[in-house]
Design brief:
Elements: H1 11-16, H2 19-33, H3 40-65, H4 67-72, H5 74-95, H6 101-107, H7 111-122, H8 129-146, H9 152-155, H10 161-180, H11 189-213, H12 222-250, H13 252-257, H14 261-274, H15 280-296
Helix pairs in contact: 2-6, 2-12, 2-14, 3-5, 3-11, 3-12, 5-10, 5-11, 6-14, 7-8, 7-10, 8-15
């Protein structure tokens, strides 16, 4: 390749990253729909237990082969499992008990800017004036959504508890995306995903038992069973594998951009299945977040994890 030629985009890697937002958007809708039937820790624990069982036949051989590599990178693996698998999903399900799926999905759009921000804070990635402007605009968009368009709530410090919990989950996912890049690319991604899920299930077990002992127990019905089947397969096994492959191929910054497809898919699913209304502050907040992302990408190429 000559110096004047630009590297061709990895179209396969980009296409791989389209499906995870659709599956994850469905996860928000399902989590909101069964909030009265299944407690959050029970849903999170059951989800990953199902995912572990479904993935095990395919992951067993690479899991055994790469076991010494997992031990070599044990602290990063533990961080990935706790932050990106156990904490992220548990916080989402907990937040959806008191906020709408639409709000939760729109807050996902702040993840790419969180990746940029954390990259600058923890990985010494430089930010230019456009990146700072992008962060400011996107943060304003997040506040618009969290405050439901009523900025007088800010003076009174009236935040939606559910929105703040979901936003904490977004912080977890941004960290997960950055840390994921640090895992060697030659480690099999199916085995790595199974290892993450296994660690997460162990971490979630005491939380599930604590919730169960406190009297928060699922109402077993057709909707609950269908919800467990969906969240255990599509947003867990398929979406995570595709996202892992996508990050390895195109990098965390580009992969993070695809999170913006979640509100598009999620708004349609929420209107169709949950009959949630769309408000002007949803559009205003989302527009500010997208404009902030555009500003952060206006000059120079997107930063990558170190």
């Amino acid at each position: 390749m000559t110096g004047n030629q630009r590297p061709r985009p990895d179209l396969a890697g980009l296409l791989i990253l389209v499906l995870p937002p659709l599956f994850w958007a469905g996860n928000f809708v399902v989590g909101r729909a069964i909030r009265h039937d299944v407690p959050p820790m029970t849903l999170s624990f059951g989800r990953w237990l199902i995912a572990f069982a479904c993935l095990l036949p395919f992951a067993w051989r690479p899991l055994r082969r790469d076991l010494p590599r997992y031990w070599q990178h044990r602290w990063r693996l533990l961080g990935l499992a706790v932050v990106g698998v156990a904490a992220f999903n548990s916080l989402v399900y907990a937040g959806l008990r008191s906020t709408t799926a639409t709000n939760g999905l729109l807050l996902n759009s702040f993840i790419p800017l969180l990746i940029v921000l954390f990259g600058a804070l923890f990985y010494r990635q430089r930010l230019g004036p456009w990146q700072y402007l992008g962060l400011a605009l996107s943060f304003a968009g997040v506040l618009t959504i969290v405050l439901h368009g009523d900025w007088t709530r800010l003076a009174a410090l009236q935040f939606s508890h559910g929105d703040l919990v979901v936003f904490a989950a977004m912080v977890c996912w941004a960290l997960y995306t950055l840390w994921l890049r640090g895992m060697p690319a030659d480690i099999d991604r199916i085995g790595l995903m199974e290892a993450q899920i296994g660690v997460a299930v162990v971490c979630l077990l005491p939380l599930f038992l604590w919730e169960f002992a406190g009297g928060l127990r699922p109402q077993w019905n057709a909707h609950a069973l269908a919800a467990f089947a969906y969240v255990g397969i599509f947003p867990s096994v398929l979406a995570y594998l595709l996202y892992n492959l996508g990050v390895a191929r195109v990098g965390p910054a580009r992969a993070g951009l695809f999170i913006h497809l979640m509100p598009v898919f999620g708004a349609l699913l929420s209107v169709l299945f949950l009959h949630e209304p769309l408000h002007a502050y949803h559009a205003a907040g989302f527009a500010a977040i997208v404009l902030g992302l555009a500003c952060s990408s206006a000059r120079g190429r997107a930063p990558t994890a170190g």
